[in-house]
Design a protein that fits this description.
It is a single chain. 43% of the residues lie in helices and 20% in strands. The chain is built from eleven helices and twelve strands. The chain has helices at residues 4-17, 23-49, 53-56, 64-75, 90-98, 113-125, 138-147, 179-187, 226-229, 235-253, 269-272; strands at residues 58-62, 80-84, 103-107, 128-132, 151-155, 165-169, 172-176, 190-196, 200-201, 214-222, 278-280, 290-292.
């Protein structure tokens, strides 16, 4: 087997959050997760090296609601912060969004420069720019872009190395960056969550597991401004808890679509230093606000 450590971590984390009624079901979920990850890699390679019908077969389209949400945000002349998670083929979700508005994504460079260059090529082919946060000036460029009415994207379920807050994710405290909300608050940008919905089979394709010849819809959910402007210092953790709860709903709807090998709940001394725990006033499945624990 490949990626033995990642498989073991994925199995441990599925068991810890109570997904999969048995070890056999969890093994099946992890196998499907890796199968989808391989499909996503193949999609990206085809996207870079092909054009026309080959690219058209990789259909990631915005729902009418998503198109309306993006159009409304842009019509107001504001910048747009688009957040998502490691769901489905998150790179082609970005490609779908980039067809609606110019998009730059904040990301961390890979440990292998060759992998970083390949990712940059994928994004360039899709019309998506890259702002590498571990390189000087990336955050300044993101702020300037948002103040000029541009769009910046980032994933909010990255394992956190330092800073941020602790928010519930599947009922367990997860170190989470507040960067997305901080960018929106500093620039007056709209904040929206973008996620792929369940795939529907196209003519000639297989069922829900189809990748080529299937259509994947991308939904965009606006986050109310009050979620991060009210409550003073509590606002950023509260808004991140809200976003994380919405992301959790998407993962629960299709568990194999999320990257369970991520070390999402790492809670060592380094990762939790200075973090503030967050509790929810109502169950995470509701639209309740979450506030820092006092």
């Amino acid at each position: 087997w490949l990626a033995v450590a990642e498989r073991r971590r994925a199995l441990r984390q599925l068991a810890a959050v109570g997904l999969g009624a048995s070890a056999r079901e969890r093994r099946a979920l992890v196998s499907e997760m890796f199968e989808r990850l391989g499909e996503a890699l193949a999609q990206c390679l085809i996207f870079v090296r092909s054009a026309g019908e080959a690219r058209a077969s990789l259909s990631f389209v915005l729902t009418p609601r998503a198109q309306a949400a993006l159009a409304e945000a842009r019509a107001a002349g504001r910048g747009v912060v688009l957040v998502g998670g490691h769901l489905g083929n998150w790179e082609l979700v970005g490609a779908a969004l980039a067809r609606a508005l110019p998009l730059q994504v904040l990301a961390r460079s890979s440990y292998d420069p060759r992998w970083t260059r390949l990712i940059a090529r994928w994004r360039e082919a899709a019309g998506v720019g890259s702002l590498w946060v571990d390189r000087p000036g990336a955050l300044r460029r993101a702020l300037a872009l948002l103040r000029a009415g541009g769009a910046v994207g980032l994933l909010i379920d990255q394992p956190l190395r330092r800073g941020g807050c602790l928010v519930p994710f599947f009922g367990r405290p997860a170190p989470t960056s507040t960067l997305a909300v901080a960018l929106a608050r500093a620039t007056g940008a709209a904040l929206l969550l973008a996620c792929p919905l369940a795939r529907r089979a196209a003519e000639g394709g297989r069922g829900g597991g189809a990748t080529f010849g299937a259509v994947t819809e991308v939904e965009v959910t606006p986050i109310a401004t009050s979620d991060w402007t009210e409550g003073g210092r509590d606002a950023l953790p509260r808004a991140m808890a809200r976003l994380t709860a919405l992301l959790e709903q998407q993962v629960r709807a299709d568990p194999a679509s999320w990257l369970w090998s991520l070390d999402r709940w790492r809670l060592d001394d380094r990762s939790t230093s200075g973090l503030e725990p967050v509790r929810c006033t109502k169950p995470l499945t509701s639209k309740a606000n979450c506030v820092p624990r006092r």
